[in-house]
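Slide 14.
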Amino acid sequence: MISHLEVIDWGPSDYEDAFLRQKARVEARRSGHCGDALIFTEHAPVYTMGLRKGAAQHLLWTADECAEQGIALIQSNRGGDITYHGPGQLVGYPILSLEHKKDLHAYLRDLEEVIIRTLARYGLPSARREGKTGIWIDQQRKICALGVAVRSWVTYHGFALNVSPQMQHFAGIVPCGITDGEVTSLQRELGYEVEMAEVKARLAVEFNTVFVNTT
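Slide 15: predicted structure.
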């Protein structure tokens, strides 16, 4: 079981730099040089393509159009399809040892539960959607994307919760391969801006509730 969780805030970061920092933390966790952690960050605008077959086909804008919008293109080793990261979107990277419970499916369900509990605090009845990844509002509007990886039963990558990102940037892709729904955000659903620090604090509380001393 997880007995202690370190919450780390990287602030704004470049996706590739953050990936290298993640890998370093994973190696440190594997070797026992650090404990479990939940890392928060907001990336510079980037489209990342996961390992799902056909993910690259869901990029709608050309490379030149992406460059005009200041959006980088990156191939990622996480699971899932293509997605967008940018300012106003809270990315969480849990780097945890699952040696105590080697069940990646259960880990994903727990991670989803953290998001569901967090959104409930804002009065939003979110839920999983059968056959789809992430967390949805009314089964039609995706508010949080998930894509994880594991090495020697240490997790990395994680979730991306739309707090108040530039929603027009999602127009350059078929987000996560969604063809029968749309993307939304906390700000869009609530009708007002939510402080990022407040969301981080709530996520940390719910993460501790779900993961620490309970698994």
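Speaker note: Helices lie at 15-30, 63-68, 104-120, 186-190, 196-211.
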